[in-house]
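Dear U.,

For the methods section draft, I wanted the exact inputs and outputs in one place so we can describe them consistently. I've listed the two proteins in the order they'll appear in the manuscript figures. Please don't edit the token lines directly; just add comments below if something needs changing.

First protein:
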Amino acid sequence: MRAANAVIGLWMLVSPFFWLHTRFQRLNAWVVGIVVVSAALAAGRGHRLGRTVNALLGAWLIISGLLPLGQRPSIVWNQVVCGFFLVLFATADSLRALRAQSGHP
């Protein structure tokens, strides 16, 4: 899952080069991408904070994608989908552990 988050972070870094972003969208994608890759690497080394950071950044991508800032629809979808998967992948291990503790297979 951490590798998937790193791939999403890399995608956020390069996506502004594939279609036109507003200044906010471009800066948002680059900052989020850098932090997501860094957090995924930290999580890979066993730091739980990395997963938390990626989950929060995923939520931020969803929220920032839905803000009425004159954003282009393709960018909105990119941010919302990437944000959803960041949250999903960042919380998957915790959800799996919680499920195991509750006795469910």
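Second protein (the one for the lower panel):
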Amino acid sequence: MISPLQNKAVIASSPLTVQCTTTPGNPALTSYGWTRSTDNWSQDSQTLSLPNVIKGDTAVYTCSAWNVMTPTGGPPVDGPVDGTDTETFTLDVLCEYFKYIV
């Protein structure tokens, strides 16, 4: 199970790091991936890392976590059993405007 993610508002050119935190499963080996709603962008990592956000990064981001259990003993199953969970958050990238006094 993935812990809930909070929506983010970040100023353009700032870095963004978001951790996808999960409750350990059985087996404990877990794979992670991030996707975003606006395009085919993806990142295979537990941590979403955008070093320099731009306005085009505004989107809904989804963290997916999964593990695969291959049963031993007990009744037979047809192949491995997958466990998958997802959580989303919305990123809003803000433009910073400067007011110059002449």
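Candidate sentences for the figure legend, describing the second protein: The longest strand covers residues 81-94. The chain is about 0% helix and 45% strand.

Thanks,
Y.
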